[in-house]
Description:
By secondary structure, this protein is of the alpha+beta class. Among the domains are: 6-80, no CATH class; 135-234, Chitinase A, domain 3 (Roll), CATH 3.10.50. 49% of the residues lie in helices and 17% in strands. The protein contains nine helices and seven strands, in the order E-E-E-H-H-H-H-E-H-H-E-H-H-E-E-H. A four-stranded antiparallel β-sheet has the order 5-4-7-6. The chain has a three-stranded antiparallel β-sheet with strand order 1-2-3. Strand 2 and strand 3 (36-39) form a beta hairpin. Helix 4 (119-128) packs across helix 9. The radius of gyration is 33 Å and the shape is flat. The model is unreliable at 1-21 (pLDDT under 50).
Amino acid sequence: MRRSCFILILFVPLLFSCKKRQIIDDVEILAKIHDRTLFRSQITKMIPRGISSADSFLMAENYIKKWAKDVLVYEVALHNLEDEKAEIDHLVEEYRYSLTRYRYQEKLIKERLSVNIRESDKISYYEENQKKFILDKGLIKGLFLKIPANAPGLSDVKTWYKSSSKESLEKIEKYSIQNAHIYDYFYDRWVDFDEIMDNIPLRVPHTNTFLKTNKSVEVSDSSYCYLLNIQEYLLSGSIAPYDYAEPQIIEMLINQKKIDFLNHFEEELYNNAIKGGDLIFNTEQ
């Protein structure tokens, strides 16, 4: 195998040793291996501002060494895979074709496609595709508190948190400002039961069974008291409520709009190519 020799300038004078060593007149060139060149500007962009000259030199040295190794390995691979060159070129061209097409489609969508979804379309999609919104987890509405075990008035909070009355909620809110480590009010929205339970040192092996039999959770350890009031629940296997499924519905409808837009664009290009004579079929069999 032919031995490779590359050329360095004073920026990194002792990186490698080579029997055949030349001086490079172009100060912008840091290293060369045959027809491949590493320029000073390439390394300048990689080095953060404000670091010491020693660190800067070390980073440059490591980068140049890595660049040189990459090029040398590539050249060896190129030499030893000559019989596979056609296949590699084909794969590279396919990737270039796909990447160019993808980038242009993304640009086209960004410039021409409105992703605004009407409320009526969201509701219609939800009603017509409810099987797509089956819950794989339990959801709850309620209130969660994590309070230091030595906090004052804890016995009062244990009474308040089980009530959803306006008076109790006001007392809890005022108390939590001063004492609670976590105060999460979600009577007005559905949340993942497992996410709430991740904050509580209690193992729940069967979510559906637990939700059917427990309206509240009260757990303590040496540091905290954990209080959860469950006002409403939905079991896994149920249809997700619209307000919970809405973000997913929006994503689905936007994706469908993108697909429809690109299909229409491609069909239009195809028909125009036929009409304009750019696409010609061989009718001979």
